[in-house]
C-alpha cells in the first residue's frame, strides 16, 4: 500500500459544499465534452446541465448516488462521484466523476481514490465498476488500464474538414 493510499480518505460532501462541488463536476464534464467530444461550448454546457439534472434529480439527496471530497492528510485534493445503476441486468457502481486538483496530480491520489471506489462497490455487494473516459484523456486511460480496467466500447470519429 502506497503512502497516498494510507493517507487518503473519502468524505461525503456536505449540503453546504454541494453547490460548489456539483458546479465543479458539471464544469469538468462540460470541458471534457467540448475538448474531447467535439461539441461546441454551448452544446457541451447544455449536455452537462441536462445529464447532471437527470442523474441527480434530488441533488445531494438522490438515492443511489454518493458524492465525496477526496482528502489526503486532512486537506481536500479532489472529488469523486459514484452511483449505482443497472447495466445488462446487473447492478454496477458507476464512476460519474473523479478529479484530482491540479496541485495534487501525479501523486497517486487518483489511483488511491479508485481503490476506495472499489471498496465502496464491495461494501454495497457489487461486483462491477464502470466508467466513461474520453478518448483524448490518455493519462486517465493509462491509469485505469493499470488498475485492471478494460475498454468495453470505443466510439471513433473523423473531422472531414480537418487537413
Kindly describe this structure.
With 163 residues, the protein is an alpha+beta fold. It has one domain (3-146): Aminopeptidase. It is built from 5 helices and 5 strands; from the N terminus they run αβααβββαβα. It has helices at 3-7, 18-37, 41-55, 109-123, 138-146, and strands at residues 8-12, 65-72, 75-87, 90-100, 129-131. It has a 5-stranded mixed beta sheet. Helix 2 crosses helix 3 (41-55). The longest helix is centred in the N-terminal third of the chain and has 20 residues, at 18-37. It is globular, with a radius of gyration of 16 Å. It starts with a helix and ends in a 17-residue tail after the last helix. The relative contact order is 0.15.
Amino acid at each position: 500500500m502506497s503512502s497516498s493510499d494510507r493517507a487518503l480518505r473519502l468524505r461525503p460532501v456536505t449540503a453546504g459544499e454541494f453547490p460548489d462541488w456539483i458546479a465543479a463536476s458539471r464544469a469538468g464534464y462540460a470541458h471534457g465534452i467540448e475538448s474531447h467530444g467535439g461539441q461546441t461550448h454551448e452544446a457541451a454546457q447544455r449536455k452537462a446541465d441536462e445529464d447532471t439534472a437527470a442523474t441527480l434529480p434530488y441533488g445531494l439527496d438522490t438515492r443511489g448516488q454518493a458524492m465525496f471530497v477526496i482528502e489526503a492528510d486532512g486537506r481536500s485534493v479532489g472529488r469523486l462521484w459514484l452511483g449505482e445503476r443497472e447495466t445488462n441486468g446487473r447492478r454496477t457502481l458507476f464512476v460519474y466523476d473523479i478529479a484530482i486538483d491540479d496541485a495534487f496530480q501525479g501523486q497517486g491520489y487518483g489511483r488511491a481514490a479508485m481503490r476506495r471506489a472499489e471498496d465502496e462497490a464491495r461494501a454495497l455487494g457489487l461486483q462491477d465498476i464502470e466508467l466513461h473516459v474520453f478518448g483524448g484523456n490518455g493519462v486517465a486511460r493509462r491509469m485505469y488500464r493499470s488498475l485492471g480496467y478494460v475498454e468495453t466500447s470505443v466510439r471513433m470519429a473523423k473531422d472531414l474538414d480537418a487537413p
